[in-house]
Specification:
Blueprint lengths: L33 E6 L14 H7 L7 E3 L6 E3 L2 E6 L5 E6 L19 H12 L14 H5 L2 H4 E8 L2 E6 L6 H4 L10 H10 L15 E7 L3 E6 L12 E6 L3 H10 L4 E3 L6 H6 L3 E7 L2 E7 L9 H10 L2 H9 L3 E3 L21 H10 L6 E6 L11 H13 L3 E6 L3 H9 L5 E7 L5 H8 L17 H10 L5 H18 L2 E14 L2 E2 L15 E2 L2
Parallel strand pairs: 1-10, 1-11, 15-16, 15-17
Antiparallel strand pairs: 2-3, 4-5, 5-7, 6-7, 8-9, 9-10, 11-18, 12-18, 13-17, 13-18, 14-18, 19-20
Helix pairs in contact: 9-11, 14-15, 15-16
Amino acid sequence: MPIRVLARPLALAAVTLTAALALVGGGAPARADTLVYCAEGSPETFNLQLVNTGTSLNAALPLYDRLLDYDPATMELRPGLAERWEVSPDGLTWTFHLRRGVRFHETKDFTPTREMNADDVRFSIERQWKRDHPYFAVNAANYVNFDDFGLADLIAALETPDARTVVFRLNRPFAPFAAVLALETGAIHSAEYADVLLKRGTPERIDLDPVGAGPFQLVRYLKDNQIRYRAFPDYWRGEQPVRTLVYSIVPDATVRLAKVRAGECHLMGYPLLQDLAGVEADPTLTLSSTAGMNTGFLAINTTKAPFTDARVRRALRLAIDRKAILDAVFDGRGELARGPMPNGLWPLRPEEPEAHDPAAARALLAEAGFPDGFETDLWAMPVQRAYNPNPRRMAEMIQADLAKVGIRARIVSFEWGEYIRRTLQGEHMLALIGWNSFPDPDFFLYQQLSCDAARPGGSNPSRWCDAEFDALVTKARQTVDRAERERLYRAALAVFERETPWVPLTQGRAHDVLRREVQGFVSQPIAAVRFDGVRLEK
């Protein structure tokens, strides 16, 4: 699912606080029916509805299916738990027909008594939507995707005329509605399980001992060590080729690669770019790559002086030598971001990014009242991402560029969950961050830059709320006419360019390193890993 890179963390205890199960010993290969993925970090939650980081997304993805799905190779929408759907001519009524035979997982304390039905969809949507819902505030919930898409105001009614039919009535047309339901927001939970937990007085277990209808079910989670899943035998698409799926949590990319080479892990994400040539030369390994649906950028907190002044923000853009950063950090395997969304996305014109011009930057700073510059913090992510494979190096280069125009930046970093939490609360001045999502302009322009998303905890890290921009992107999401949407988005992009709420930096490819025995794995452009259909061959 699409998928994004920001999130409000939810503290997770280990599901079972026992000693970690040994994955392999002494470098021996893992069992043929066990697939081991070297993951870069621990999840904040196992509830997809609360997820907006790639790390938590990937941990929760095996557990849930959504109303709609997307093809991992083409990113085209396809049926999921809804086998078909229709839209009324006015775009206000969306009817979904649920498939039969979908079973939910069991836990040691819960055995489902029925198949998935419309009650489960109602529960899963209303938990995110209705503030008086008994699960709305469980686990200090922040439904960042639901809220950033403005779904609370968009949905007028949700009807379930029978067990197999769900009808959404909208207050206004919303072109990307089907795609939204293929993302985290559309993950379907068991209403029966929620009722059982509520009666027991333990509703918080719903996000810690999760029950979904996905291809794998959770067995054990030991924070900062491993997550263990087993194939769900009653999965509606059929049981998976591998019986056990293990996430071995290894933050260091060099160590992850060493474990893959030793056979202790079968695959890994986020390799260091300088290691890719060696991977390509290794006959035991495969490098899987695809163009990333992402942007990496420097978020400018527009609510804090001196960054309330657009001249200062434009000065930052002119001061940073983005081409030098691309050459140094991406080793020829990325490209310059031309705007606030991926270069290949349809409203974006192919103009070259604005040239590096320190003299013009100094002039803008002087015009804004800062001829001698100023001091600021510059936050550097603690993790690698496709859009930023070396955040520390990138931060150091930006620091040096800013110093040349009189801006004295102090580099700051935090643990990843804390970094995201503080950024989404607007505690930063400048922060390196990025975004991966489904290929629709709304998922970049509205979800990242709208006034809705600028609230505390929302996915607008610049806290930018511009009435002109907001009106344009809001109108664009309410029309299904492609030409009109493109016209509106291009006008919005002109406002973004003028106001510079953040500095677009880079766009990267998604890379995964696989052992040769891994078959059926497809690298995805949206920072997700999917293991449904993946198999091991001797």
